[in-house]
């Protein structure tokens, strides 16, 4: 049954009230500042189901920005309310003078939003939002702060599915590259499936990188990820597309992995027991990095690619050619309800000014900045109109820069928290879920594998009572997996290079004779005993030559072991609602 405007507004107000119940302060002396009523900051963002008509969000100010400015008044700082009214974007300094969380209105980038047209024209809200983001990120860089970007619709981009208009994706990805020293991570939702996206900066168009707009829309010939077609089958196709794209990622070399492993064993055996393993690993990594640089300088490639220069291919030691977007599964389920809790490095954050003093500084600084921000945007739109008039007069006119390219990091700046472990680096997350089948308690039997929420699993079974009286248990969330201890993903942190290794393992790239997946020396240090796809790929390849005549049963076991990261990724994407056997049948080689 379609909802009306009143129902949409009331539901969002209900959620705000629930946040108050959980996170509200018990203030004996209430003040006039509504943003001071919660013990933790809450940063909402517009979703395509928060508005009517569904997906359609026109340029602001509009009815919806004004309605939500009232509903979310507790969450939006006073100094940011003008930005929110203009288009639904804003940010909050969740750790004053250290970390800001930026709430993007991703509906202005969304292919299914027919009220807007990409991010190329300066009159478009998508263009204005990205220009606002550029100014804010530069402002945060100048203050030596970091940022986490949040939004609803993620920048999914495969051959068969593109969520964003191409002009928006191109500029956003360029922004991610230029502000890689500032951005600590990006968090999205919308697609219901638990996964991550690897953005390759080499896919940014050369014209865009040089400040020229590309007038190109991706709305034709692709499926936006929330259309009715995006069901199980479409999600299946999308996940396969992701894996296929990851097979094309640069591949680490076996010789470097072997050298790291041998060095670790040698140093550990000859060193004083007081030297910790992490220090040994750090020495090895530094040695290998310096050795690669010396090798790079001493060789003359003569136009040929050096197959050993893996770090050069991925953008250096910290994989700065790529960025990662985290996509969480949904709270209101297509599958099971979920909640995700991230953990980040707080080293050094205890040495800061009192919150009141910092808030005062941040607000006074930002007020003046907002005014200049708006003036700059208005001037650019005026200039855009002048350029159009000039084009009519002169048919042949030299190509001009159409937008301001963000400044890159300083050459002396260290890698940002998304690339190198440091303060505010995302360390991991715990993925919680609620098994509704078990909670509803409608059927006999306790076999967890029999209790997946999927049509047909309980075919022929009788409920507890013929009159269908419910017998639910208490609604509780339980841990689905924890990246800090997970023995399949083995993410020591959520930095880009850690995810790059995981993507390579999920892709299950078949190794060449002199080019196999690199084992992580730190994995050995931490003593993981679980399936190591990096090394297992080598073992499987060797085993194939020795045992060519094994039966189907052994082959199936080998396939499971070889594809364990991939099967686990898919199973988690569907929040454990699809049986492992079905996953192997649908997603197997």
TrEMBL record:
<feature type="region of interest" description="Disordered">
    <location>
        <begin position="362"/>
        <end position="419"/>
    </location>
</feature>
<feature type="region of interest" description="Disordered">
    <location>
        <begin position="528"/>
        <end position="564"/>
    </location>
</feature>
<keyword id="KW-0378">Hydrolase</keyword>
<feature type="compositionally biased region" description="Acidic residues">
    <location>
        <begin position="368"/>
        <end position="387"/>
    </location>
</feature>
<dbReference type="GO" id="GO:0004309">
    <property type="term" value="F:exopolyphosphatase activity"/>
</dbReference>
<comment type="similarity">
    <text>Belongs to the endopolyphosphatase PPN1 family.</text>
</comment>
<protein>
    <recommendedName>
        <fullName>Endopolyphosphatase</fullName>
        <ecNumber>3.6.1.10</ecNumber>
    </recommendedName>
</protein>
<dbReference type="InterPro" id="IPR012358">
    <property type="entry name" value="EndopolyPtase_N1"/>
</dbReference>
<dbReference type="GO" id="GO:0000324">
    <property type="term" value="C:fungal-type vacuole"/>
</dbReference>
<dbReference type="GO" id="GO:0006798">
    <property type="term" value="P:polyphosphate catabolic process"/>
</dbReference>
<keyword id="KW-0735">Signal-anchor</keyword>
<keyword id="KW-0812">Transmembrane</keyword>
<keyword id="KW-0926">Vacuole</keyword>
<dbReference type="GO" id="GO:0000298">
    <property type="term" value="F:endopolyphosphatase activity"/>
</dbReference>
<dbReference type="GO" id="GO:0005774">
    <property type="term" value="C:vacuolar membrane"/>
</dbReference>
<keyword id="KW-1133">Transmembrane helix</keyword>
<keyword id="KW-0472">Membrane</keyword>
<feature type="compositionally biased region" description="Pro residues">
    <location>
        <begin position="406"/>
        <end position="418"/>
    </location>
</feature>
<keyword id="KW-0325">Glycoprotein</keyword>
<feature type="compositionally biased region" description="Basic residues">
    <location>
        <begin position="544"/>
        <end position="561"/>
    </location>
</feature>
<feature type="compositionally biased region" description="Basic residues">
    <location>
        <begin position="392"/>
        <end position="404"/>
    </location>
</feature>
<dbReference type="InterPro" id="IPR029052">
    <property type="entry name" value="Metallo-depent_PP-like"/>
</dbReference>
<dbReference type="GO" id="GO:0008081">
    <property type="term" value="F:phosphoric diester hydrolase activity"/>
</dbReference>
